Amino acid sequence: MKEIRSLVHPNLVAVWPGMGQVAINAGIYLISKLKMEFSLELDESKLFDVDHIEIKDGRVQTIRRPRNLFFVWEDPLRKNDLILFLGEGQPSHGKYNFCQKIINLANESQVEKVFTFAAMATQMPPHSKSRTFGVGTGTAELSNLKNLDVEILMEGNISGMNGILLGVAAELGKNGYCLLGEIPHIFGALPFPKATLAILETFTSMLDINLDLAELSEQVAEHEKEIEMALEQIHANQLSEEKESAPLHQANESFETNAVNAEELQKIEELFQAAKGDRSKSFELKKELDRSGLFKEYEDRFLDLFKKNNQP
User: Fold this and answer.
1) For the whole model, what pTM was predicted?
2) CA-CA distance, 76 to 73, in Å (whole number)?
3) Is the separation of the CB atoms in 41 and 69 below 8 Å?
4) Burial status of residue 89 (CB atoms within 10 A of its CB: 0-12, 13-18, 19 or more)
């Protein structure tokens, strides 16, 4: 794999978009706060079909397929280095072969364990602490999860690449885990940072990684206030009996933002400049792009922040 030197006890983390943006935001937080280095872009565009086009200012935009990027972090304590794979989208076909390619690339760097992140939708009250659920490839992995008070997912399935990659890893003789952060089912279409925090707390404990989670904790506190306001609105709507489907519909509607104004666009530009100089500020930029609903529009530019020519 390009530019990967002799890594010390390397582990692979793989993330894709999914419910609550739980996994993808966990990956971006790791890239940002650990100042991971971009290593390799895997061209698998043939696996991604196109089902729509983007329009901006009345003009048809160039078709783009999701990118597949590898990042590397060398632990300054020389204990557990990381390789992080970030996929912008899940392929429409060829998932198994794609996962084999990812694991084979990781094997070139002698990766020891494979981790995937995902969301677990339950009936949890929105203000409750998110639990971390987990599965492992063997008895030792299950024992490690239990020692960290992770709830074992005893039955069921994990759909998508989060599950398939772990299955392929086990098939090819690699041990690993899938960590799932708990989210309320009615908020599945919205970012839920509490679940991201739960996953990263567990993950960093497992690998003894010193990761500053303060910014993510602050986002959780802000999100709690937004939830409280949304639930108050839901309750008011229920009392007025405006819509029978108020709980689910209004929960999503309450988080919708108005059209982005010039001041907000200026703030985004300022955050881009700040993140170019200090990549640890890129998660603040990600939060603002999520809040304004513009992450997809700026996704390429955001991920390009981590290319070599943008590093301080």
Assistant:
1) 0.81
2) 9
3) yes
4) middle
